[in-house]
## 1
Amino acid sequence: LSYICLLLFLVGLKTQAQKSLNPKVQLLVRNYQDSVVLRWAPTSAAQWLIASQKGYRVQKTVISKGSSQGMSTLLTPNKILPLTFEEVKLRYSKQDSYVGAAVQSLYNPKASTTFQQSVGGIIQKSNEQNSRYASAMLSADYSPNAATVLGLRWVDKAAKNPDDIIMYKVWIDT
């Protein structure tokens, strides 16, 4: 009986771990006269770190009036990744503090690159990653430029028909 309980406990842990690693992205969409702006964020520091390497994809589905099926289009044939440090230096001013904070979150040269297997080391690394994530998301919330630098923003400038229903889907690339 104790083996069965232990087995059920381990299966429960594995299931919980798989749920926590399931990539989740929250999406906010704003409709403007000339465009639709998509701004998203992964729901955890771990997902943000993974997505910073793998990138994002954006899909648009348009359902026209009188049609029962939508037409889906992949808007990002190339995945959306954060800008490189060199690209940021070319595009943005050094005086843009939100872009600076975004770059610091992504490319922090003071971030530890070693992993200490002690409990204290694990907690320290977790706190560091969570702080970088919080700083990055805050910068992206306050600045469209910072969101672009972090690869968390897309602008759809395609013509819109007011009678259409448009849905967007953003996911972390695999």
## 2
Amino acid sequence: NVKEPSYQQTPLMWACRAGLAEFVSLYVLQGAHVNDVDWMGWTAGHHAALNGNYEVYDSLRVGDADFDKQDNQGDTPLHVAGSYGNTEFTQHLLLGGADCSIQNLEGNQPSHIAARDNQLTALQAICVYDKHIGRLNYQHQTPLGLAKFHNAEDCRAFLEKHYRMVTRRPAPEC
């Protein structure tokens, strides 16, 4: 019995976005579909990442939420949490096994997004788990390159001090 997606924001999504952990827990216990998507491809996990309430995260895990599910732009809840600087939520995602190497449609990993948006504490949390911190996106930019381009000074300084990534294009393969 396959459920067709409604592409509407569900009450669960609204509760996640508002950070209402008690309601999220209730909806999950009543069998809400935690991996349904809205018109943007966002799941309840994406909406929770926007709010950053880690208690909501815990409730969604009970419902087997897929925190690596990509939206219409290829972003996961970890991309969203990094963009908004929701560090505790970012840490919960990473401790729960969220994949920090997933690239969105522009080739950006969560570290690229956090660096671009100058979300230093979220970037620091991601860097602990990201084995590919110097990966180039599809515009041939590393997280450091994006931090420089977007004048994200805190993240630029952190990445230059701790990672010393190159920001030029790699040599072509022969």
